[in-house]
Design brief:
single chain, 130 residues, alpha/beta, Rossmann fold, 5-stranded parallel beta sheet, globular, Sig_transdc_resp-reg_receiver, CheY-like_superfamily, phosphoprotein
């Protein structure tokens, strides 16, 4: 954990639930001192990904305006954001869906509800940040 605290990362979190945005932001800022940017819609998230160039994106799968997979595909289709690893955050995941997400290029999946204290370790494990 000590090594993770030395890494300065910029993380974009896209989720339509304010409470989830707040929990993720507080968890990542307090546990790892990461710079966390939040967006409550897909369109705002895409704009922030282009302008802020985060090290990773945490993306809710179920959103009202456009779903997480649509957002992910738009990010992948944009040369400015296609290199940014994306971790899906969702309550709805079956094993077959996880394989489908990986085939699409999603870095990994974190299942809701998650333990806020484990969030940094889970992200680091998924993204191979040691």
């Amino acid at each position: 954990m000590q090594d993770k605290l030395k890494m300065t990362k910029r993380i974009l979190v896209i989720d339509d639930e304010d409470s989830v945005l707040e929990i993720v932001q507080i968890s990542l800022e307090s546990a790892a001192n990461w710079d966390v940017i939040t967006a409550s819609s897909g369109s705002a998230g895409i704009e922030l990904a282009v302008s802020k160039q985060p090290d990773a994106i945490i993306l809710d799968l179920v959103m009202p305006e456009m779903d997480g997979l649509t957002i992910f595909k738009k990010l992948q289709d944009n040369i400015a954001t296609s290199h940014i690893p994306t971790v899906l955050l969702t309550a709805k995941v079956h094993i077959s869906e996880q394989a489908e997400f990986r085939n699409l290029g999603v870095a990994g999946v974190i299942i809701k509800p998650f333990m806020p204290l484990d969030l940094v370790d889970n992200i680091c494990k998924i993204l191979n940040w040691t």
